[in-house]
Each structure stands twice: as structure tokens, then as C-alpha cells.
Amino acid sequence: MDKRAAAQVLEGRGWLAEQPADLRAEILARGRLRAYADGQAVYRGGDAPDGLYALVTGRMRLATVQEDGREVVILHAGPGHWFGEVSMVDGLPRGQTAVAKGDSLVLHLPGEAFARIVEADPRRWANFAGILSRHLRQATHYLGEVLALPTPQRTARLLALLCRLEEGAGSGPVQLPLSQEDLAGMLGLSRQTANRALGRLEGAGLVRRGYGGIEVRDMAALDRFEG
User: In this protein, which residues make up the domain named HTH crp-type (predicted)?
Assistant: First the structure.
């Protein structure tokens, strides 16, 4: 995929689609396309910040690393998702690990280019802060409305939330390329407990477990599911 095709993807969805035309053009002009193979890390927790990233094609697994070395998955991101913004704001080492799930193409806005943009026009800080605020709102929603629920409802609401984060997801079935192990990590549950919750949702006809992911058959019903 060339730069023009990548621009069409990023300008049509996610954060960049909401930005002024001149900022979109500058980011795309300064950004560089980088390809990653399945399992290859874009960066790891503890790395020095080196810029912003946007997923063009493929999937990206974002996870935090606990003190015992265990990874907890935060999100499986799809095209249009921007990541790496926190370290660009606070200047601290990466707090997450970003690993490609399948062959993936990423637009990288190097740290030097990011600095030139905001130094030339400090008002651009507010635009870039939109990436952080978008992610913070999603996290706040999850913490405030999902974590307090019983396990089956929590699982249903999280799957519905992940569907809404999928660009282009409509009222039909949505395929989430999410392993049951990663889902358990996102829920803070053991794999066995998460599987039991998935079984209840599958029994209700709301999801279908399969190789390589979970098919959500009725996102609206997941939002209403009461167990």
C-alpha cells in the first residue's frame, strides 16, 4: 500500500478524520509508513518515546506489563486507531507494549516531526490531546459502567464496547479477532471464568466462539443482557 492509499484509510476514520485539513496534510506528509510482521513489536513497555503511531491495515495488540512480567491486554485495535500518545505528552518511557497481530502497516509520526508541528503552532497540542481524551473517555466508561457488573453482564458489555470501537461496525455480526485468553485478561478474570461467561452468551445466541476470534451476533442485545 502506498502513502496515498494509507491516507485514504486514516482520513476516513478515527481521530485523524476529525482534524482540520491542514493538520491532516502535515501529519501525512511528515509520517512514514512502516510494515510489521505478525508478532513483531512496534514498541515495548519501558522503551523511550519515539513518536505517534496510527494503524493503517492489520491489527495491533496493546498490553501493559505487570510487575511479575505478566501482560494484560488493553485493546485489540483496528485500522484508524492512533496509539503511543501518552509518552509523547509526558515524555516518560512507554507504559504499554504494542505488537502486530498479523501482518500490519502503520503510519509513524516521528517525535521530531511531532515536536515541529506543536512548536510551530502550540494550538495543535489541543488537537493531539484529542487522542488521549478519546482513550480516557473509553477507559472511564469501562471502569464506571462495566467493572461493577456481575461477570456475565461485564463480559457482554465489554464485547459490545469492543464492537463499537470497530470502524464500520453496524447492526450485523461483528468479528472480533480476540482470543479467549486476551478477553479474560481484559476482564480481570481467569480463562475458565471468562469461558463460562462466554458460554452463557453463546447459549443465548448473542456470540459464537470460533478459531481466531469471537463473532458478536447482536451488539444491541449484549448491551441489554442481564444474565
Answer: 149-220
Per-position DSSP letters for 103-149, written without gaps between them: EEEEEEEEHHHHHHHHHH-TTHHHHHHHHHHHHHHHHHHHHHHTTTS
- The fold of 3-145 is Jelly Rolls (2.60.120)
CA 156 – CA 161 distance, rounded (Å): 9
pTM of the entire structure? 0.82
The residues that bridge with 61 in the sheet, in sequence order, are 76, 99
Question: 46 has which bridge partners?
Answer: none
**pLDDT, tens digit (0-9, with 9 covering 90-100), for 11-25:** 999 999 999 999 999
Domain ranges of the chain: 3-145, 150-223
CB under 8 Å, gap of 24 or more: what pairs does 154-157 form?
A: 154/187, 154/197, 155/183, 155/187, 155/194, 155/197, 155/198, 155/201, 156/201, 156/206, 156/222, 156/223, 156/225, 157/222, 157/223, 157/225
Check pLDDT > 70 for residue 171: no
Which residues, 6 or more positions from 13, have their beta carbon under 8 angstroms from its beta carbon?
Answer: 79, 80, 167, 168
- Selected from 3.30.70.360, 1.10.10.10, 1.10.290.10, 3.90.700.10, the CATH number assigned to the domain covering 150-223 reads 1.10.10.10
Quick count: other Cβ atoms within 10 Å of Cβ 79? 22
The residues near 192 (Cβ < 8 Å, ≥ 6 apart) are none
